[in-house]
Amino acid sequence: MKNISPESRLVDSCVPSGRIARLRRAPLFVVLGMALVVLTGVVVVQAAMPDLREAGSPLRQSLAMLGGLLLLVPAGFSIAKRGGLSKRPPSWFVAHVLASAAGLAMVSFHAVGGRLLSPPGVVLALLFFLVLQGTLARIFLSPKLSQQFGSRPPSYREVGSSDRAALAAIIERKRALLPRLDAQASEALFSPNLRHALRHPWLTLRYARLAAIESRLVGARRGAGTSLSLWRRLHIAVALMFLAGLAAHVIVVVVFAGYAAAGRPIYWWHLAAWGA
Amino acid sequence: MGRLSLSIDLERCTGCKSCEAACKQVNGLGPSEYRNKVMWLGSQEAPALDFLTVTCQQCERPACLRACPVSPKALWKDPVTGVVSVDESRCTGCGECVLACPYGAMGYDAVDHHAVKCDLCAPRRERGEGPACASVCPTRAITFGERDELVARAEAADKPVRDHDHFLQGPATLYLDRKRSVEAVEPLDRLAGKMPPVLLTDHRPRQRLNAEVAKAPYRMDNSAAADEVKPGGCHICFNACTLKFHVRDGAVVNILGNDEDPVFQGRICPKSQMTLQLYSNPARLTRPLKRIGEPGSGRFEEISWEQALDEIAARLGQVREAHGSEALAIHMGTRTGVLNIMGYMRLFSQMWGTPNVLTTEPFCDAGKVVALEQTLGSTALGNIYTEDDIGSARLYVYFGDNQAETRPVNFGMVNDWRLTSGARMVVIDPRLTATASKADRWLAIRPGTDMALGLGLIHEIFATGRHQLAFCEQWVMGWERWRDFIEAKGYSAEWAASVTDLDVAMIRSLAAEIAAADGCMIFASRGINQHNNSVQTNRVLMFLAAITGNWGRKGGGFFNVAAEPEWVTVPVPEARRAPISKPALGRSPVAWLEGMLRGRPYPIRALITGNNPVGQWPGQAKVRQALEGLDLLVQVELFRNETSALADYVLPAASGIEKGGISRLAEDRRIVWNDKIAEPPGEARSDHWFWIELGKRFGFDDVLQERYKDPGVFWDEVFRRATPDLTDITLARLKSKPYRWMRTPVAHEDDPETGTLYLEGSTAFGRAPGKRFPTPSGQLEFWSAALDAKFASMGLSALPVFYTEAEQLIDLPYLAPAGNEGAAAQLSPFFHSPAALETVALVSPGADSPGARLRAEGYDTELVTGRPTASHFHSWTHYFWQSQEMWPELYCQLHPDKARRIGIADGERVCIETPRGSLEARAWVTAGIRPDAVFVPIGWDTTQPFHPAGSVNVLTEGQLDPISHQSNLKLHLCRVRAAGS
User: Fold this and answer.
1) Mean pLDDT throughout B756-763?
2) Which of A15, A142, A146 sits opposite B221 (nearest CB)?
3) Among A151, A158, A193, whose Cβ lies nearest the Cβ of B104?
4) How high is the pLDDT of residue B562?
């Protein structure tokens, strides 16, 4: 059996410490406010100072680099959380929120010198979406999560005769696959994590597919409604797109600076000017 | 140790939500944070009511755990016990586990953002205690233990274990199914097709209950044991549950049941637990207030107690000077405690000199009190809640008594006993109440006609020769006269069926069951009492019990909440007693209104109340008008309410363990002692303190002595000595009990406690040898020349002539004033102190009867009022956020047929109208109510903090039972429409 905390520790942690509780609560409104301020600032600067179009100026580029590094913290959160690298994942959660907000501000200051209707502008838009969606979900969807309690009385009805056959088959397939993925694990408690994905990507994918089928057959997630069941998946998908976009942008401006300049002077720090 | 789990018996659960309350207080949960939740499930297709306790299933294959994306997971499963727990220090609050749980049993803390789930009270288990929910469950529906053992126990009890493993997760929590009823045609699965009312599932009204308003037990860390545990009792209702107050750092942090109590064994309902929210409530009155605006303006200034009492005394003096001492009325209810209403208040009123002193009895059970006094000679009911007494009955018949919701613990014991013994249960009620939902048979009687049903049953029993002849001849005075009268009047089962709207075969069958049962407990309560035929209906039901031998035996009897000692007024030395020259205006606040409004027959100009008359007295518009015109209105209260705005002075009261003493009387003669454990908020003072301090202003302190502010001193030196039933219950003996109660009467301090009363061969307490029953004759007295003379003095007969409310949907006999206003005033022969009496006449209905006139005006519906669900009691609980979360809004239960006719869906708003006023409420559409009736609960008030709504007394009139001055609160004609239409 894995992942079992000793019961005494559980007792100690029944009530979250005040520090964690405060950390969990405080950033939400800060982030929402900051995102709105930044968004307003970008729009104002864009409208009022059209001449400030030097996204790669030393200050702006430095901020972009710092902001970009901060925006890797959410990825770090995801890795730490899924990879067993953190003793206190909620602290990482808070870090991801604060780093995203700060990163957004810095990157926005960098981006305000460029054109928003451009591929990097799309990446910035993805970032805005992530910050806003995450914040709004925390504020408005959390109560809906609470309201899920007691929302499924039909699940307590007597089982019908043919309800369970399809589920049993899927569970059997999971059990058959699991020893190859994690010999020590029990199907009852197992879901693949980052280590499994890195060691056995194909098996992990197959197992995750089976788990997804089981989840669909159970129908609990679907029963919670579209917004609750999809927001987080959308958040992760957009985050991946953002990271990909961010990486592409960095590579383009640093290595393919000539392409990025499109005939204009290359005034920013770069490694190569390919693509001119 | 094996796999642990809860076992939840659907047949025992009454939906009281005590488990919810316990879970929240022990785990410090706030609004919307659940580890368990009780769902009420009903149907619009057929009468049905079931209860489902949702809690973690502690699954073998927990979907929540597999869904957790954290590594190592924030959820973990104990390999030995199988308990699935959340480690909040690892939870990032993503909610994946909540979405994954197909049982809807995963909670979420939307403030601190983490999963919340039942871990079967891990900290309590560490201390060797079980989960809190199981420890308090009033019905023993929830039990805890090793799963295998629980399964074996269920099998031994022949209880089917529900298979709800739709998802192949191996849920450990057991749901024991209800046995199929022999009579009812039911679907195989009782939960199939049943859904909760919108009232329960609509989260919008609950949004105002947030972390800002939620106080205790929200976020209280109760994982460690308390510093100290003090025994005491709940002071809210007649169940008088015994409690343990858990104290940490000098503050009460938990209120749980007293597991040392041999009767209750720790069972309690949610209300006593939620008194935590009373003691720390920010809405409590904390300073004396003096009104500085017009009556109703609600403008007050804070003043000192000194100033308040001086000014009140001065103004009382002016009232006495101008109108006499009788112009002061005092109305204090059981909220203020028995020591107050039968002790301190009585001392003051005797020294002041007013006969107009009342408790809430005229609204609760005055009819029963008079009926018992005339028939039994005492208000001390004989039976007690023990397994060998009430628990040994073979049949339980509830007439207008929703015991499951009004005294959940007592009902829990009854239901437990009867399920174990196989005894049957029949409930007669216009609604399918929680009580009725547990019965073998529910008879949806026409409101106000229980007397007719009783007469029909008696007729049938005599007609079939099933009465207990030997008992009748030896112990029932006047039984033959009753028998002959009922026969002569033709009060047959057929007649009863036509009046009550019940099936004649059902009536016959019930009569046969009652007569044949080796012990039948007949329960009656407010559904019988709160009618203007209250005394006579009670007498009829007593007679029904008597002729079937169900008096003075274990497992059989007549019961009507609550049993009381034979009170003797606390004595004031003759020289110190103020003369009273006028009789009381009546024995009901309703009777006072004429004195307040028109000064007839003499004026009442001042009122001291410990209640909320505007919300609680029937006929709100008239009451409001009467109170507005007073020279002085003093209110001693816990919270501001609708009456406060009219009061000249609003004084902050202490309550329960803030003052100590005897708070309530239990329905089976138990009295429970409370020490003072907590300090009252601000400058709040006990009612005791108030009377003593006010008395000082009039020089009463030689009798209302300063040292009586200590309720222990008052109990030992004054109170118990006045009433023989209590004389030898010393404080020392009370406090020697780990559960702090004793049963009355006790003859001598060293005597063993009394059990069942009036058993064959026994002598009634304080009576001459051989007097089995405490009447002058020693028999149960139903007819005697003396009794008949009493009834005749008001135009009635001691024989059971049927009548009911004037406002009925069909033409039935009713009472009307005899129209002899000019005649010399008479005094009622039924009261202990002089009170005016009105003579009445029996009227046969005609086209101009009140009912016919109202029907012609479109008032086509029976308005039934009563207590809401178990988490509420009058207005107290409307200040508790937890009660409000359980049942927030004023509702109106109505039948789907009526809902369709007026175009209303479940959860929409309806308007209920009577000639007295109109009220809006949220519709609860259920087939569990008579098609022509609606039910609106009591207790709401427009000034309440969370979910204010008008009091149902906007609609009521409260016509008096002429014999007892009990108000009719149970039946008025109304009409119902969609709000806004």
Assistant:
1) 97
2) A15
3) A151
4) 86
The two structure tokens encoding residue A64: 């972009």
CA-to-CA distance for B56 and B73, rounded, in angstroms?
18
Q: How far apart are CA B226 and CA B220, in angstroms?
A: 12
pLDDT at B220: 87
Chain B, 14 to 43: residues with Cβ < 8 Å from chain A are 27-28, 32-34, 37, 39, 41
ipTM over cut 0.90: yes
Nearest-angstrom CA–CA distance, B913 and A234: 52
Q: Which of A151, A156, A163 sits opposite B191 (nearest CB)?
A: A156
* Structure confidence at residue A43 (pLDDT): 67
CB contact under 8 A, B201 and A151: yes
Cis previous bond, B745, omega within 30: yes
pLDDT at B824 over 70: no
Task: Kindly determine whether residue A92 and residue B104, on different chains, have CB atoms separated by under 8 Å.
Answer: no
Nearest CA distance, B273 vs chain A (angstrom): 21
Contact A89 B92 (CB under 8 A): yes
Helices A27-48, A89-111: crossing angle, 10 deg rounding:
10
A5–B93 CB contact, under 8 Å:
no
Cβ distance B545 to B471 under 8 Å?
Answer: no
Q: Which pTM value belongs to this model? A: 0.94
With an 8 Å Cβ cutoff, are A89 and B91 in contact? yes
Residue A128 has pLDDT above 90, yes or no: yes
Beta strands in A14-93 (DSSP E): none
| β partners of residue B8 | B142, B175
Per the CB < 8 A criterion, the answer to whether B479 and B472 are in contact is yes
Phi-psi region of B709 (alpha: psi -120 to 50; beta: other; left: phi over 0): alpha
Q: Does B76 contact A at CB distance below 8 Å? A: yes
In three-state secondary structure terms, B223 is: coil
Rounded to whole angstroms, the Cα distance separating B134 from B138 reads 9
3-state helix, strand, coil in chain A (%, to 5): 70, 0, 30
Average pLDDT over residues B670-676: 94
